[in-house]
Amino acid sequence: MDTSDFPARAATANTPGAWGAHLAERAARLDAADRLAPVRGLFALDERVVYLDGNSLGALPAHVPERMRDVIARQWGELGIRSWSESGWWTAPERVGDRVAPLVGAEPGTVVVADSTSVNVFKALVAAVRLAPEGRDEIVVDATTFPTDGYIAESAARLTGTRLVPVEPAEVAGRVGPRTAVALVNHVDFRTGRLHDLPGTTRAVREAGALAVWDLCHSAGALPVGLAEHGVDLAVGCTYKFLNGGPGSPAFLYVAPRHQRGFDSPLPGWNSHADPFAMAPGYAAADGAVRGRVGTPDILSLLAADAALDVWDHEAVDIPAVRAKSLALTDFFLECVAVYAPAGRVASVTPRAHAERASQVALRCAQAPAVMEALIARGVVGDLRRPDLLRFGFTPLYTRFADAERAARVLGEVLAA
Amino acid sequence: MDTSDFPARAATANTPGAWGAHLAERAARLDAADRLAPVRGLFALDERVVYLDGNSLGALPAHVPERMRDVIARQWGELGIRSWSESGWWTAPERVGDRVAPLVGAEPGTVVVADSTSVNVFKALVAAVRLAPEGRDEIVVDATTFPTDGYIAESAARLTGTRLVPVEPAEVAGRVGPRTAVALVNHVDFRTGRLHDLPGTTRAVREAGALAVWDLCHSAGALPVGLAEHGVDLAVGCTYKFLNGGPGSPAFLYVAPRHQRGFDSPLPGWNSHADPFAMAPGYAAADGAVRGRVGTPDILSLLAADAALDVWDHEAVDIPAVRAKSLALTDFFLECVAVYAPAGRVASVTPRAHAERASQVALRCAQAPAVMEALIARGVVGDLRRPDLLRFGFTPLYTRFADAERAARVLGEVLAA
Fold first, then answer.
1. What per-residue string of b and e applies to A276-293 under the rule 16 or more CB within 10 Å gives b?
2. What integer pLDDT is reported at residue A20 of this predicted model?
3. Would you identify the CATH topology of the domain A4-62+316-416?
4. How big is the A-B interface in CB pairs under 8 Å?
């Protein structure tokens, strides 16, 4: 783990004085030059709060309540059952999938939005074992994974007669071999914010004859993923973090075009049938992304995510711009923490190298629970990962450099108190 | 299949005259005496339309849009991540489950609302195979099932090394034996509206040493189910039909208290962990209904269903009252159809016997697609099950006897045209 102690000038934290004024001015200049600055206006944000938890629950886009009123009152209330066709409900999972696709570098027709991330991990892993060459009996799984992926992988292994091999993400490339059916890796470590090597690991996994399945929960909407470019086999991800889809909005599943015809889902619900309304007793899988569907989509949650994706249509918004601002924000936050935090009280576990950093900063801190509680009380909302990590997510669409400066300043005050 | 042709007086359909006036008067008297009549006011209904598709998508309770505005604008928009605790989001699946439980005769703490029906069928079947005595290798499945149950059962059989045995529901009791691990039966036939014998079938399945899993999609909220009373092992059901939860609102899963400690989910996502926020690498299942959860709940869809359940708190509403009105409505509708429909043009496939009838009427009709289209154009909304069934759902909470009379009258006009 990359743990960086902050330099000694942090000792000035109790009397930020000149340094603080300098950082506040820097923040103002950076915000003034930020081409994404106008996008913040698309969100409903409490100006008294610095919201640095968009890596857990993205902020509400301001137009979503009105859109959902239409979905609920008119589409459901007035059109009723007719909305399955007239309001496009039936095809929403793949239509919304096609809006997510360009954000993760996926081909059109390869992404479906439905079910939870956990359920999609299950679909992807079982399908990957079935797609892998005969006789392979190992599922390599990220040893530092967000836990649900590991739990579900254990279940997939048990049900497919394979065994689980936990491996550190950086060692996956060297560990995969002739027995590996599939490797499941998180693109970003949910604790540290470390960005793993998707292109290199995918290449190694595929050269070993196995399939690479990526969990993009903490990278989708935050940085370039390049699913097609890097030849990823299958992927899952979340729409309620950097895509701002709302609490528990459905996750997405990517199936590379070369695997679509062979994708053999362990959850072949009627929504994935080639002719669902024939209601035939025999299952026949649909072609394309639809095959990843299971049951009736949770329309309200799904259409809130759909509405939230509108912010990506703003002329200033694209993934490279988001990535550039994300790195600038986290650089600046780390710099501010170094100035404001009393020496030795926090240590970043987030990599300094841009190539290894996603869009959050995690600080190790002895009294992390009490510190986070105090931060939230003072209007700086991050979150906690037990036992000792303060986690701050930076969503470039609505987070300002001034927010980063204020968060670090308040953190310094809390730590000094 | 119980096919009842209507009697010859249907020949009066083109000149309903006295018969029609008589039926309209009867409807008015029945509505005036209906203790559930005031409940209709709790729903947002287009008075120009007779909505007989509540067995597919329940009507919108009038207070839901405002409730969802609060969920979206305040809980998500203002409280953000804090709503997982402060707005009760995290515990909503089991809290809403405890509201569904009494409607299906389940014990408190046995029902969780999460994921789609299909996903819950998968959890229930794989868990049931694991709960069944060693060595049993058959999954008996309703041969007339709603198709997704059959598709998912096929997948569960494949993954658990069991085999699928399709059996007509009425024959399940006689077919289960020492090789049966589990029997999955629909409480109601989605095509004909036939109500199957849950108490007797459950008894026979359990006497054979197997587990009974019921799909309650078309009975929950429409009639007494008595899960605890009849000793059902596991059950799944839908919240968007007679429970009016909104399009694709999450389904529910029931696990009998005696099975909760042994319930071994094939989808052990982090939400079902005993200490999810420990984010521990090893899985340890939570106790109780929570064990049926998987990933992050789709809060918007779930809380719309929660809000919709408020109508069951109305003083006039309980399941016996709903059942009584449902039977009276479908009796009356069948009577009206017999009067208004030209002879020989439609035949009911819904049983006449109350003990065998759920809350819909299905009419076989030669030009069913065109007839349903014409009905909808004239403001009578039912639906179609290919190739030749007109399906009319009766939701006693908001359907009036006058609606039944009008629907039958318009059907007669369409058939005569």
1. beebbeebebbebbbbbb
2. 84
3. Aspartate Aminotransferase, domain 1 (3.90.1150)
4. 247
